[in-house]
Amino acid sequence: MKKFIYTLALIFSLGVSFNTVQAAEKAKNPTELTSEQSLKLEKIKTRVEEIRDMDKSNLTKAERKALRSELRELKGQARAVSGGVYLSVGAIIIIILLLILIL
Known about the structure:
Elements: H1 2-26, H2 35-53, H3 61-82, H4 89-102
Helix pairs in contact: 2-3
């Protein structure tokens, strides 16, 4: 039974380390935005505010669906422009386990 648990722990830790390496490669983007990126981000913000301020009560179902899809697309573009910190689920679990062991 111990061998099974140790093998399972080894497989889990290898899987977590692989996900962590992939997340680290994605997070290598610079944190500072260039002027073009900040301008694009401002355009996205203004468009989102325009959509938010719209009167949606008299729109058809297809128009509301188009607005939702546009908002999803804008959200994806904003994430791509601004970058971010990526943590895998495995990394979060390891951090929690370490905190439990330390405290």
